[in-house]
Please model this.
Amino acid sequence: MGKVHVFNAGPCLLPQQVIDNAAEALKDFKGTGVSVLSISHRTKEWEATMEECRSLWKELLNIPDTHEVLFLGGGASMEFLYVAMNYLEKKAAYLETGVWAKKALKEAKGLGEAYAIASSADRNYSYIPKGFEIPTDIDYLHITTNNTIYGTEIREDIDCPVPLIADMSSDIMSRPVDVSKYALIYGGAQKNVGPAGVAFAIVNKESLGKVSRYIPTMLDYRTHIDKLSMFNTPPVFPIYVMNETLKWLKGMGGVEAIHKIDVKKAELLYSEIDRNPLFVGTAAVEDRSIMNVCFVMAPGYEALQDEFLAFSKTRNIVGIKGHRSVGGFRASIYNACTVEDVQALVDCMQEFENLKK
Ligand SMILES: *Cc1c(COP(=O)(O)O)cnc(C)c1O
Model:
């Protein structure tokens, strides 16, 4: 079998170098003779890996000293609850840009007053609502910067008069971010920075401690700040792989360098979607994501959907079936996906067009 081009939405493709190093560490972690699966998280070798990972996060995203980076179990979905537990006192607003945003809002509603400040549900979340005013009497505004399912993205750090909280699960490390504008940035690692099993949180220490409720120990960000993400056994292997992924990213030239490549990949694919008469994009052009590219068969060609999917498999293309709530196709072109991978998909679309002409 030739090279397989993986466009899975998550868990994502990881760089080969990361996989190779992880395979080695499974056998022998840093020359200790112990597998990374069995290493004690209280050893100096492990603590050095945790520290390296934390400092790579800080370096790559230019994280100011006001903020700390945490590694947590439970995924981004658990952080929906962390957010409400740690920040919701009276009222919170959520920008409803998709199913993940809605799920985050649901957790807040369970703990207090929370509402959607604007929503794009009217057009199946195919755009980012604009022009809404952010009230100043709310505890925080929650946004989802990249809507993995619908392929829309907020690609700038908005000015916000209240604490700003962002789920960046699927676009973290794809562009430089002004971290100082956020009270909290969080997400699951498995979209762009590692394997499933660990979530990250970049939290402004000053933003905590403002709610009156009892916060269970494990759901209190302060617990994990105090214990350097080792209050309990951390997800050792996922953190190991995340650290390798960040080392790879640094070797690529960091976030600004990868951003240029990400934009180039996205432009390559979107321009084929716009050119090829068989396909049409589903997201509003001005809100198009550079991470998840959603498209469907153009009107008149709908019946060819399954055939194209089958054809793409013969070209070693994996993972482009769209999410059931959008249909069609979704190519997730995260950092580890190469220009060559995207070119293979573009070639496949052109070949299919030629077959059908
Ligand atoms: C995948 C995803 C989630 C859920 O992540 P889990 O780690 O599976 O809980 C949340 N938000 C966004 C934007 C996602 O893409």
Notes: The longest helix spans residues 254-275. The chain is about 35% helix and 15% strand. The first strand starts at residue 5 and ends at 6.
